[in-house]
């Protein structure tokens, strides 16, 4: 049985159609990626799962089941209590609070008691030693990458069974993005399923076993991540791999037929 099953999900914000008939599976223990450009509907998909569409005046139809149980009728806090935790886009940490208090806040609303909170904190510090070193600093003073670590650490404090990550590599330098990617792998290796929403297809396809490509609110492509990474369309549109023939055609069109590259080089 799939851990998360989204079926025929359609979402609108008033007159704006953001998602249409989207079906996505996140199998137990897997990393599933959802790719797509700006406005494709990636964040909306996560909001539907975390039951936070209402905060954004969004409404939807379709079904979402987590471990066989429908999420219909549940509020955001009940979804968190069920173990589905979202790390929102843009590293939303509590800037004036210390790193330690941010992490403590993550444990609020989770099922565990003191012992689980202490164990969770140990695990977060193991994954992100910098959060232990900076425990008493204000979160707003951390670098962008460190804030992303804190946002993920805070989510881990809630003991997620399914982690929803919204563009964790956004705006990070390549080295930091690679570190975050490594950590996502480590988190997943300890049994947490991950739904990873990314514009950075190179990172997402490397981490995920299955991927979906959203295009203007619909699933345009889906399949094993390695097959998608090898497909011409994904390489051209999302991995920035230039199709040489198309590039040559475009250059010739600009130069005009009488100024083809071969004539210039002749
Ligand atoms: P990005 O990568 O830019 O964050 P995205 O793939 O996450 O994009 P969404 O944020 O889900 O896309 O947006 C999907 C569509 O819904 C877009 O057309 C967007 O303008 C619209 N939209 C999102 N949130 C709202 C809202 N609160 N009110 C109205 N329209 C919205």
Automatic annotation (TrEMBL):
It comes from the Bacteria. Gene3D superfamilies: P-loop containing nucleotide triphosphate hydrolases. InterPro entries: AAA+_ATPase, ABC_transporter-like_ATP-bd, ABC_transporter-like_CS, BCAA_Transport_ATP-bd_LivF, P-loop_NTPase. The keyword Ribonucleoprotein does not apply. It holds the Pfam family ABC_tran. PROSITE patterns: ABC_TRANSPORTER_1, ABC_TRANSPORTER_2. Belongs to the ABC transporter superfamily. This is Branched-chain amino acid transport system ATP-binding protein.
